[in-house]
Amino acid sequence: GAVVSQHPSWVICKSGTSVKIECRSLDFQATTMFWYRQFPKQSLMLMATSNEGSKATYEQGVEKDKFLINHASLTLSTLTVTSAHPEDSSFYICSAQGGLASNNEQFFGPGTRLTVL
Amino acid sequence: GDSVTQMEGPVTLSEEAFLTINCTYTATGYPSLFWYVQYPGEGLQLLLKATKADDKGSNKGFEATYRKETTSFHLEKGSVQVSDSAVYFCGISSGSARQLTFGSGTQLTVLP
User: Fold this and answer.
1) CB contact under 8 A, B105 and A113
2) Are A32 and A107 contacting, i.e. CB atoms less than 8 angstroms apart?
3) Which of A2, A30, B11, B65 would be A25's cystine partner, CB 3.0–4.6 Å?
4) CA torsion sign, A110 to B91 to A70 to A75?
5) What is the pLDDT of residue A40?
């Protein structure tokens, strides 16, 4: 089946630093990737949708200058949390969609836990 | 916009008990419906799905039927196991972008 990986699985950083999270589709080409954020005991909230080779579309209330998304290839998307602060601590999950061939099903990565001190 | 209302948890059951987790939705058009499961510290795994009215999705003993008339997609399992303990999310996908909208999640704990 379709596999999506995320790296790192967890990261701890100091306030004010930037953190990059990678999302890779390992065995299919992902025309669209989604980034979600999940707070403890809550549901996933969509942050942005990115299509390969174009700018990401951010959901209302998500700062595009703070959460930089790059989808430069059909197998890789990155989320960079710039100037991270403790309130950015969360579980970040990506998903990848392979277009019509996959019936537009989303395949989820295992998530990255970010802790900002 | 699309929305999903899911039964609040937590739900605690004894092993071999019957499970129902209610899910209703509002959406434009004809959405696809999903149930995902999340184990502690992990991402989401697709449990089952249904893409049109009256379809029944099933996997690992779990079932859910796409009920267009009641806009529902309730998850059921006849006999739960301890290993079923996880958080379950109901989700819908519609529109050209096929974005997923999730319910709030239901924590299930199965006791031996």
Assistant:
1) no
2) no
3) A30
4) positive
5) 82
DSSP 8-state code for residue A28: S
**Which residues of B fall below an 8 Å CB-CB distance to A?**
32, 36, 41-46, 49, 51, 89, 93, 97-105, 107
CA-wise closest residue to B68 among B17, B94, B106, B31: B31
In chain A, what is the greatest distance between 2 CA atoms, to the nearest angstrom?
Answer: 43
Are residues B49 and B65 in contact, defined by beta-carbon separation less than 8 angstroms? no
Backbone φ, ψ for residue A55 (5° rounding): -70, 150
Q: How many CB pairs under 8 A join A and B?
A: 50
pLDDT above 70: residue A1: no
Nearest to A49 among B45, B93, B97 (CB): B97
| Chain B positions in Cβ-Cβ contact with residue A110 (cut-off 8 Å) | 42-43
Any B CB within 8 A of A110 CB: yes
Digit-coded pLDDT (tens) for A24-64: 999 888 889 999 998 887 888 999 999 888 889 999 999 99
Query: For residues B39 and B60, is the Cβ–Cβ distance under 8 A?
Result: no
Which amino acid, A89? S
Does A16 or A3 have the greater pLDDT score? A16
Whose structure tokens read 């058009």? B29
Q: Cβ of A32: how many Cβ atoms within 10 Å?
A: 20
